[in-house]
Amino acid sequence: MKPYLIRPRIQPDESLFGHLMRCAKANLVSPERMAHRIGLTHPHQMKPTYHTLLDFTQAELNYSTLLQIEHKTVSSKLLTESSFKGFDFKWHGLNLMQSQIRRSPRICPICLTIQPNIIREQWYLNSYLICGYHNFYMTPRPLEQSQSCIDFSTDVLSKLVFQLDSIFNECNQKNKLLRSTEELLNRLPIPPLINSNDKPNSTTLSWQPHQLFLF
């Protein structure tokens, strides 16, 4: 597995989801394509609320390999299940409940002006209301500032390949069913030959069902 050519350095407090989005944009590929290479179904699985729902063992290794980041750096940014009663997650030494983690982060407009596309880990905390860097109130992330999953030409081709694969797989399944049906029909017992002196019976076949082909 070859690493990506452009590998933006991950910031100490940057979220894995934000870093993945930045790397995808830097390498001119869609976030979906990069997520697939990492071993995920969708890039949103890198958001903190989804970390504990998946087995990230292989994803961690792929992420480290493709983007040349130390494995311990990736693992340190993942939420894990808390062993304390009443808490759901453990993250950077904090025991948190589900309600304390946001699905969509608040943002600091000043941070985004200085570092476009940055998404910090603490922005996912419900209790984080003021930016620690600029003493500015955090605001909901506007839709227009959300990084859309733009399809580039390579991803259009990839989707086309996936669609063709599904079509051919479906055709193969149909062909298998046809072949199985043909084999069953060819196993029918061969009726006795009709004597010229006998009158043909409507229930008697005058042909041998040998090598019957449906198409």
Topology:
Layout: H1 16-26, H2 31-38, H3 57-67, H4 71-76, E1 80-81, E2 89-91, E3 94-96, E4 106-107, H5 109-114, E5 139-140, H6 153-186
Antiparallel strand pairs: 1-2, 2-3, 4-5
Helix pairs in contact: 1-2
Question: Could you characterize the architecture of this molecule?
Answer:
By secondary structure, this protein is mostly helical. It has two domains: 16-150, no CATH class; 153-215. It is built from six helices and five strands, in the order ααααββββαβα. It has a three-stranded antiparallel beta sheet with strand order 1-2-3, with no helix packed on it. Strand 2 and strand 3 (94-96) form a beta hairpin. It starts with 15 loop residues before the first helix and ends in a 29-residue tail after the last helix. Residues 144-153 have low confidence and may be disordered.
List keywords for this structure.
single chain; 215 residues; three-stranded antiparallel β-sheet; two-stranded antiparallel sheet
In a few lines, what is going on in this structure?
With 215 residues, this protein is mostly helical. It is 35% helix and 6% strand.
Form type: elongated
Q: Give the helix level as a range of percent.
A: 25-40%
Low-confidence stretches: 144-153
DSSP helical segment count = 6
Q: Tell me what portion of residues adopts beta-strand conformation.
A: 5-15%
- Order of SSEs, N→C? HHHHEEEEHEH
How many distinct folded domains? 2
How far is the N terminus from the C terminus?
44 Å
Q: Which structural category do the helix and sheet elements fall into? A: mainly alpha
**DSSP strand tally:** 5
What is the topology, as strand order, of the major beta sheet?
Answer: 1-2-3
Mean pLDDT equals 80
In angstroms, what is the radius of gyration?
30 Å
